[in-house]
Amino acid sequence: MEKLITCFKKKPEAVARLICFPWAGGGSIHYARWGNVFNSSIEVLSVRLPGRESRAKEPFFENMQQIVDEVLHLLLPVLKEKPFALFGHSFGAHTSYAVADALKKVHNIEPVHIFLSGAPAPYSETRIQTTKRSDLSDKDFLKWLASIGGTPPELLANPEVLQLFLPALKADLHVVENYKCNTPLSPFLSCPVSCFDGKDDIPHDLQAWKDITTGDFLVRMLDGSHFYLKDPGNEQIILDYITKHLETSEMDYL
């Protein structure tokens, strides 16, 4: 499991675990540090995909099924131990969906809550019609990256750093752009689903996420563009929200 997960603070006494999936090109550190912020009731397990950090020499995954297979293979025993929730932003939101779908259909296990951010449902019309970016030239790709915000200008201006950053980002975008799934014929989950997004990001069909659950459904818009969650104020709002809902998860789980 250590290959897949970064956990800054192990909390054996935690009421619940929060499994976090990175955005496209992202590593595990951003979410792993949440483990130092949450109190003892929530343990954070941040997913580290191949091609980055300590897995830099491993080839990138080419499709969503490879991600799902590895997560289920390595994390399934952990997910059976106590209540868990999923969090994912953008590419990570789609990964969260794919993992939740497989967990329920193959193992009849579901999270106590799913927190989704900055992404339309993978089966929504707006997402299906989205222009593919992973095949763009590096020059055009960087123009698009700058336009959505959230990437530090100094990174975009540093060719050496970009050489390390771009391959992972393009690989993840290739995965999500080629990930196809149908609108659920009926909700396959019963847990609450909460969606967050930046008010200035391109519009996402967040309401379509309601199709996956019979449980409570919430959409909350926060100030900012695509990477609104990097703002400390917005991040605190999200962390407080997660804490409020996961601290009572043990009662729902029993």
Structure description:
The chain is α/β, with parallel strands linked by helices and 254 residues long. The chain is built from ten helices and seven strands. The protein has one domain (5-253): 3-Layer(aba) Sandwich (Rossmann fold). The chain has helices at 29-32, 34-37, 64-79, 91-107, 125-128, 138-148, 153-156, 159-177, 232-246, 249-253; strands spanning 5-6, 16-21, 42-47, 84-89, 113-117, 193-198, 217-222. It has a seven-stranded mixed sheet, sandwiched between helices. Helix 3 packs across helix 4 (91-107). The protein is globular and about 45 Å long. The model has no long low-confidence stretch (mean pLDDT 91).
Q: What's the architecture, going by CATH?
A: 3-Layer(aba) Sandwich
Question: What is the CATH homology-level superfamily?
Answer: Alpha/Beta hydrolase fold, catalytic domain
Radius of gyration over alpha carbons?
17 Å
Name the poorly predicted regions: none
Structure at a glance:
This protein is α/β, with parallel strands linked by helices. The protein is 39% helix and 15% strand.
